[in-house]
Amino acid sequence: MGERILVLVRHGESEWNLKNLFTGWRDVGLTEKGIKEAQAAGRRLKAQGFRFDVAFTSALVRAQHSLDLMLDELAQKTIPVLQDQALNERDYGDLSGLNKDDARAKWGAEQVHVWRRSYDVAPPGGESLKDTAARVLPYYIEEILPRVLRGDNVLVSAHGNSLRALIMVLERLSPKQIVARELATGAPQIYRLNADATVAEKKDLAA
Known about the structure:
Elements: E1 5-10, H1 15-18, H2 32-47, E2 54-57, H3 61-74, E3 81-83, H4 100-107, H5 109-117, H6 129-149, E4 153-158, H7 160-170, H8 175-179, E5 189-193, E6 199-204
Parallel strand pairs: 1-4, 2-3, 2-4
Antiparallel strand pairs: 1-5, 5-6
Helix pairs in contact: 2-3, 4-5, 6-7
């Protein structure tokens, strides 16, 4: 696909994804399925011939482990890896650790739906997607984008909502469009950028 490559990958299935719990900043590991998803993502990227110059990930182990598994499959474990909590999942505040069905029983299905699927309404003690974007986007502009624009191939292993914040900007989506966007675990999203940071081409490597 040429130069200025940015690849975004949501971590493999986590233990709390499996249990239908709000995870947020809680540090939980991958399931066996999640490990296999990350390994498969690495193999798909290898099959496409990608060689990365640098990787970015969050401060949470599920994203770090996914990245490590992908780089292992790619045989590229010596590249620089930068970790920052700016790429962490959205903080679900008081919902963190709760079963989604239990949260609906406590606050009502409609309220929980608003917290999960609105752009700018935060759960108690937590972040909205808008809040998440407010920390993700400056980091992207200052740390990630300059590497892409100078021709590096960049791999980012992060989370559903931190990646939605990036995808919203890359694909010029509205708040309504981005909250409806589903992002599969372990499915690489490949962007080739123009010199002005707009998207020239996008490819989805979902299984």
